[in-house]
Design a protein that fits this description.
- By secondary structure, the protein is an alpha/beta fold.
- It contains 21 helices and 23 strands.
- The protein has a domain at 137-175 and 534-654.
- Helix content is 36%, strand content 17%.
- The strands form five sheets. It has an eight-stranded parallel β-sheet. Strands 5-4-9-8-6-7 form a six-stranded mixed β-sheet, covered by helices on one side.
- β18 and β19 form a beta hairpin.
- The radius of gyration is 25 Å and the shape is globular.
Amino acid sequence: MDLLEKAARFGIDPSFTDGYGQTRSSDPGALQQVIDALGPSHRGGFLDGPLVARSRATGGRQNIDLSQLALPLHAWRLVDGAGRIVCEGDALSARDQPDVSNLTNGVYRLYAVEEDGEKDQTCLIAAPDKAFGGRFERRWILALQLYGLRSARNWGIGDFRDLQATIAWAADAGAAGVGLNPLHALFDNHPADCSPYSPSSRLFLNSIYIDVARLPELPPTFAAEHASEIERLRQAGFVDYVTVAGLKTQALHLAFEQFKTRTTLRRRTAFEIFCAERGEALERFACFEILRRKFAGPWWEWPAPWSRPDNTALAELRRGPDAAEIEYVAFVQWCADQQLKECAQLCRQRGMPVGLYLDVAVGVKADGFDAWNEQSAISRQLSIGAPPDQLNTAGQDWGLAGYNAAGLEAADFAPFRQMLRASMRHAGAIRLDHVLGLNRLYVVPHGYKADQGVYIQMPFEAMLAVVALESAAHRCIVIGEDLGTVPEGFRDRLSDWGLWSYRVMMFERDDAGDFQPAGGYPPDALVTFNTHDLPTYAGWQAVHDIGVKSALGLDPGETREAREHAVARLHAAIGHGGTDLAEFEAVLGFLSETPSRLLGIAVEDLLGVIDQVNVPGTIDEHPNWRRRLPLPIEHWNQRIDPERLAHALRSRRA
């Protein structure tokens, strides 16, 4: 079997079209390295991939798409997750349709036998017709980076108490919810490793957002003893992750010691319920956190048996000298979960139909918990990225590990479902970063440049079915970040399954540079002016971002003349010119008139911030993910006029 045949068997595209419309052929060495990284788990039987049984809206009857089956079959059997036989038959031909009209939504295993006696099995997903779509018309949400919030009481970083204050402010202003950067668990919140989009785990929360002062077990003297340090952190222009994390870790350890001996029965019971709910995943996460501090280097260099999550060894670890520290990790996760849950409850109390809108990172760090925990389903030797386009001319390597299609299928998509459940746990809506990865992943083998990556096909229909399944179960809207090089028909498939689009006004322009009229946006979409990876409105119209990128030696992807032309075309679209906040209110008025059901407004734009949150392609050169807002929450109304904001958004008021 030659290299191209091997690549085809693994769903690898040997060539692709980049953002410039140029065809690129993959380097043979890169192809071979990708094949080696995917491992031997790729299926080779006659059942070619997972099946989907979808309940159509008309009549509710489920029909299985049999197009991927090698028919006829001599015998078949469908088994649920508990190993129970749901239905079975002696034969199946192209004219047959198995009777699965009473099949409960979920994930099953199909076992089949061909006429020649060969046996095979695959996954079958019984899914609702569409993902949950929400119960509201055209509304708006406030978008922010939680770490950037200032307040009169936090410890130098926005926390869950600040989030409650923000929810109250947004509800008073008429917002339907609050959108946040990913809250995933990172390693140790080091400045060089503080991107919320580069998590160790998407199953658990970043403990740095806990308002430790609210923990009933923390002695009130702790804050008083560290008052000067807390005040210094509170006044800083950037988040000092190392100091903040260190201070909060001290407080959390102290609270945990008190919790073990002096907490109430109610709180102890709540903790035990949380541990039971999160089950094995929490136990493994807590053990991983201890193990990564015991051993130097990434987990694949750890000694046996720790380089793989062995349940017997981990059970012994939990009973050994590290038992208290392992319980401490679970305690910290419980504290974070409880405080985020309270934020979600406040959204409901304030009548916000969306509530919390949480971002979900596209991948995880190769040396993090998720990659250790799901070694067959996550490819640690390949980095997710994107091919060259107008904004990133050299391509992108995000340094994140993504899913292995064959590993997901072998596990009946359990790792993907578990990630979605954790993300939806307290959310009314989630945004899947780089949703194009459900269809195909652009991966860069280690040692190759970002423009030398290859595309791997994913089980697109099955992954959409899983998203719809979890979305309906959790009543959570799913918005797909569908920017970049979008394959033909991709957005139509998302829409057919009920996933919303993500439309950025900055990109919605025709070949002449004119902005798309308000009526041209789709209804089931979140529309916004920019994103965290793009300039703020103030920075964009002042051409500030181009100057910053040029000074950093980055290709801005746009000339000053082109930007000035774009600003002029924007003024023509919104019927307003100028450089003050009134101009952004005109932009909001324009976006407010779009049919799109959600409008996202960045708080940085409301406050007139000129520097962007993140400059892609930089780490130390720019203070990414560290910049704090210029005003504390208590003083927002000094810069944001509630009446003028309400007037700009008058068509989206409840």
